[in-house]
TrEMBL record, chains A, B:
Residues 136-198, 200-258 form the CBS domain. It is found in: Cell membrane; Membrane. GO terms for cellular component: plasma membrane. It comes from Zymobacter palmae. Keywords: CBS domain, Cell membrane, Magnesium, Membrane, Metal-binding, Transmembrane, Transmembrane helix, Transport. NCBIfam families: mgtE (TIGR00400). Homodimer. The chain crosses the membrane at residues 284-304, 310-337, 358-377, 389-410, 422-445. Pfam families: CBS, MgtE, MgtE_N. Belongs to the SLC41A transporter family. GO terms for molecular function: magnesium ion transmembrane transporter activity; metal ion binding. This is Magnesium transporter MgtE.
């Protein structure tokens, strides 16, 4: 929180090119805050700063910068500098930057890295974006299960400077297969002479490297894990995903779901750093699609043109009725989208939830019909009030069932359920609402005296 | 993941009342999974199970149960049993359950707890719901700053069985004020003979006990902390909040925001465990409010009744125009609500974001006007096409500016910005849309030949 006060001294030291003073300041300052400040500094200042400070600080701060800033700064660094930087950074972070480069540059950087780091980089960068493999790190502590607890503690001490976490340790058999796990706390409390395989937790919860990253993040949150081991199809340990990366994944996925639910396309970066043109592009696609969706409502209205000409006052109730269907539908869709998003609701629950929704939406519709009846009676007459009330119940039920079913349908066809956004549900409900209302109204109006009295204004 | 396979053997052991076998099974099984299973079992079975197994397992599994289930099981336990259970549980979890009891029972349980635990419970349960104090734990490792690294490691070893985390250690001066912090990793790597105050990180990031819990969670995520120290106004250390509790807070807050954005009230429990009546109550309030909001649109339409009777075909374009305003407004509101929710957008950014929105919404409106013009020209004539196009630009701009400003306005008045839901924005946009469209249309229609030709159907 004191980084705001630190910035002037950082700027002064940078102006003097006094990197010793800078490193002293950075020893105590949180890298996340420094990165947040420098994300807004001009690129040449940031590059000068990162080139001058100690590699350990540079790697940490660089990891926290936004992707586009990382790429621009990387253009100013030599391949040698990048090879050193990538070696110092956590494997999962460096692989993300590495993957943004052209093949030629990747090749050149790899040639400058030591054998082990090169292998790690090649392996980590080969996993598909969005999978557990793409966010895992290979800097974990693994120990042969036949060693003793005290030997394991020694290994932890040796690995401490490099591993991403030393607080969860994994046991392997001679074929490098994952057979157990222990937390550092359990190791400290265990008998130092005991063999690991006699004290370790052998029922290890692990994930496969091709599992979607949001599922892995959900597992970490469910089990309150510090890290989850990632295995390949032979149950060989290939990496770990840590809780902090899981938190980032959850935040990004939630933002994407939120935006989808508002009919905005998925933004790669934060709102403030997204260009105006990108924002325009992410919004216009859905808006135009929905405009054409609205044409169905227009066609419905055109079909009832005669009725509207005879009974223009009916139009007064149109926004209210189609709006209510859209609102009830948005509510139902929101509940389902979030339920599916947190894993609390499963696609198998659809039928039981449908039953609940049928009941709730019916009672919701009746309540709203009762609420609006005095007004529609005052504005029109008994027939108009009946037509509005019956339409209200029908439209709210149709909207609710549509809103709750759409996320499941989308999921069934492999699409993201959050695409069942409020605006999409509202637009669909509009068309249904127009048809329902004017159909019901035409029954009542023709059944009644022909031209019932409707007062307006 | 193997808990599904474990459940039959758990059930068999429970039927035989073989608690030794049960404890053996639980030694290796993740408590989160066991709790998830027993949350769905009848209360008497769950109580029998929890009463029989070892206290350590009972405390862990009980902590993972949903609040309503915890309360029902607690009714079946004696005050002695609860006092033992609360002593074994993490302080933040037990305080949550404790706070659900009547004052008389709280008193009786406290009398049965040891002095230190009683003090902790009283202190933790006194913090207001929703603050950092209400989710913090007092089971942390703190050490006087004048001790050495090796003495600190000894203290960590002694505290390991009880502390919620031993991986972050806090240094205090003689007045119990927080002066520094070190991770266990840093302790392991430091010179064992060094005094702590010479090697510790002395620029500690901490939070105050009355800070809102979502802000604390955001700090933990921002700094990738394992835990954050909580201090009182004298900078005395009173507790820590750990990353796993932060993840839970983020998930709950996000769900609340999601539901608000869909105009559903905040649900205390998950969707499946919420009763039908509660769901009805959480939805009907907004639906009825919005129905009455829609009456403004109705009044607007009533005002233009004459125009509608003369030009019924204009109604064809009504759902399309008011829908587009609502959609653009929902998009803008979604972007702002999520931006404010993640802390990426600040209330001070309002004016600069308003400028961007003005520009984007203008271009969005023009694009949509162009897209719809051929259709409105074909359906109507040049005047109708002009009226629709001009209305479209105006309505999309009004909707967007309304949608983006509303979250800021709500925030300004101390309300949750997520209350600026899609349905609320749509309903507000509907009224504006009706007024704009018919005003523009009446200018064009009276300016034109009087009764221009509009073909329908």
């Amino acid at each position: 929180m004191n980084t705001i006060e630190l910035m002037p001294s950082i700027r002064r030291a940078l102006a003097r090119r006094d990197f010793t003073a800078l490193n002293d300041i950075l020893d105590d300052a949180p890298a996340a805050d420094i990165a947040e400040r420098f994300a807004r500094e001009p690129d040449d200042i940031s590059t000068l700063f990162l080139k001058g400070i100690a590699l350990k600080h540079c790697a940490e701060i660089f990891s926290y910068l936004p992707a586009d800033k990382q790429l621009r700064i990387a253009q100013e660094l030599s391949d040698d500098e990048l090879a050193r930087l990538f070696t110092e950074m956590d494997g999962d972070d460096s692989a993300d930057v590495f993957n943004m480069f052209e093949p030629v540059r990747r090749e050149s950087i790899l040639r400058r890295m030591a054998h082990k780091e090169r292998e790690d980089m090649l392996r980590l960068s080969s996993y598909e974006e969005g999978t557990a493999g793409s966010i895992m790190t290979s800097e974990y502590v693994s120990i042969n299960e036949r060693l003793t607890v005290s030997e394991a503690l020694n290994k932890v001490r040796q690995t401490a400077p490099d591993a991403e976490t030393i607080y969860q340790v994994y046991m392997l058999d001679d074929q490098q297969r994952l057979t157990g796990t222990m937390s550092l706390r359990q190791l400290i409390l265990a008998d130092p002479l005991a063999r690991l395989d006699s004290v370790m937790i052998s029922d290890v919860v692990s994930a496969s490297s091709d599992m979607p990253q949001e599922d892995v993040a959900r597992m970490i949150s469910h089990y309150d894990f510090l890290a989850i081991p990632i295995v390949n199809h032979d149950n060989k340990l290939v990496g770990i995903v840590t809780y902090d990366d899981a938190m980032d994944v959850v935040e990004k996925e939630t933002t994407d779901d939120f935006h989808r639910a508002g009919s905005v396309g998925v933004l790669e970066q934060g709102l403030s750093s997204t260009s105006l043109f990108t924002l325009y592009r992410k919004r216009i696609v859905w808006l135009v699609l929905l405009v054409f969706g609205s044409l169905f409502s227009g066609a419905g209205i055109a079909h009832f043109q005669g009725l509207i000409e005879a009974q223009a006052a009916l139009v007064i109730f149109l926004p209210l009725l189609i709006g209510s269907g859209g609102n009830a539908g948005s509510q139902a869709a929101t509940l389902m989208v979030r339920g599916l998003g947190t894993g609390e609701v499963n696609i198998r629950d659809w039928t039981s939830l449908l039953g609940r929704e049928l009941l709730i939406s019916c009672v919701l519709g009746i309540t709203m019909a009762v609420a609006i009846s005095p007004i529609s009676y005052a504005r029109g007459n008994f027939d108009v009030a009946c037509a509005v009330a019956i339409s209200m119940v029908a439209i709210v039920m149709v909207g609710s069932l549509l809103g709750m079913s759409l996320p499941f349908l989308l999921n069934r066809f492999g699409l993201d359920p959050a695409t069942a956004s409020g605006p999409l549900v509202s637009t669909l409900c509009d068309s249904c609402g127009v048809l329902v209302f004017f159909s019901v109204a035409s029954m009542f109006i023709s059944a009644a005296t022909g031209t019932p009295h409707v007062s307006c204004g």
